[in-house]
């Protein structure tokens, strides 16, 4: 359907338009009634798709000029529909990607994903959490007998940042769904392997669902059980314990009893160490802040490849903004956010992985960690 | 950014947008002075509006009437909820919390803090003998430093 904008010049034209509207029963958007059509005044009519050509021919015959105001009415309608009611709900194979899921469902989801995409996806065990939950990651790519380069992405290192695991799940779905139709993705998965860890801090995530929504750390006890949890993103071996941390176990930025003191950290670090010569890029997803952070957090001294890091980061931010206009800032953590040591992003860079980024997803404080599930789709779409 | 020996003064140009009147931003300028060394006093803030903000009288009245019409004192928790949702009738309570947290944040801000209201943990209306409304809030504030 299209909406046409017409300014009739003469009374004859007005009459013709009135006739057209009444015989074809066209939907007048402006003015309200055909009898209100006047020469020199704006006319907006919605023409059903099947009649568009006929109407345009008739206008041409009567030398009435028009402009197409809205080329596709349905598209506008779909865009403005609340997510639940439109076909854009993003349910793929029964899984609702526009909602937040508890850990049990994420475990099931991983199994399903591997099952449904076994030619591309394999599920692997990374290690175990403090509370003995298994950490799984998904390896996505075309199998090959040569060793492939790797891009690693982990989500949910901080329990309350729910949008982060939601993004990992969305990302996997999106890549797999479009694999057949998108040559770029095909080539990508041909040449590289994607390793996705949907929830790194599983114990913390479970706790944020069951007990305390704004919990951040892991759930290992310290101080004889007087306090719980280490901030896993302060627990890596990069200037560990130096800045932006606390040695007080009740602090939200408690860095643990030593670098890699936590089983979760150890599991990730061990794996990345073993594969480090093949890892091209390390991504870790957080919220909130709308930032793309580069190393380092512990010092303002720039990393050796800071220009490259900034350039890639800026291109990513521009692509992201292109989708919905959401703006992201790019820069080194120490400069843009604050000082911190022991972060996974920094550690990964110090062992030689060139491209290492922390993404802080939506928003900038309005909802903060409790981002409404209605924002899952736009956040994920733009971050793709 | 100005650096005096009194402290650090920031000159800001910003746009204010009323949550209930989006699409009509009002420009304003502000000067924020963080006193040197003083970690116990709030920064000094001077704001000049270049335009007018919409009157909130109608919305205020509506909210006031609604609360007065309730049979029991209002009690609510977790706003927004875990999934980020706020029931429409509780939106004014949420906004009130924003305003209150704004004051607290201002009183506790330094150049190194970046506070946001994370969630209204609990709110309870306090019964009063006069016609004023009183609410007791437990607010969770988040400082970006712990990101």
Structural description of this entry:
- About 2% of the residues of chain A have low confidence.
- In chain A, the strands form four sheets. Chain A has an eight-stranded mixed β-sheet, sandwiched between helices. In chain A, strands 2-3-1-4 form a four-stranded antiparallel β-sheet, with helices on one face.
- Chain A contains twelve helices and 16 strands.
- In chain A, helix 5 packs across helix 12 and helix 9 packs across helix 12.
- Chain A is elongated, with a radius of gyration of 27 Å.
- Chain A folds into two domains: 77 residues, Alpha-Beta Plaits (2-Layer Sandwich); 257 residues, Aminopeptidase.
- Chain A is α/β, with parallel strands linked by helices.
- Chain B has two domains: 54 residues, Nuclear Transport Factor 2, Chain: A (Roll), CATH 3.10.450.10; 93 residues, Nuclear Transport Factor 2, Chain: A, CATH 3.10.450.10.
- Chain B contains two helices and seven strands.
- The longest helix of chain B has 17 residues.
- Chain B is globular, with a radius of gyration of 18 Å.
- Chain B: It holds the Pfam family LXN.
- Chain B: Belongs to the protease inhibitor I47 (latexin) family.
- Chain B: This is LXN protein.
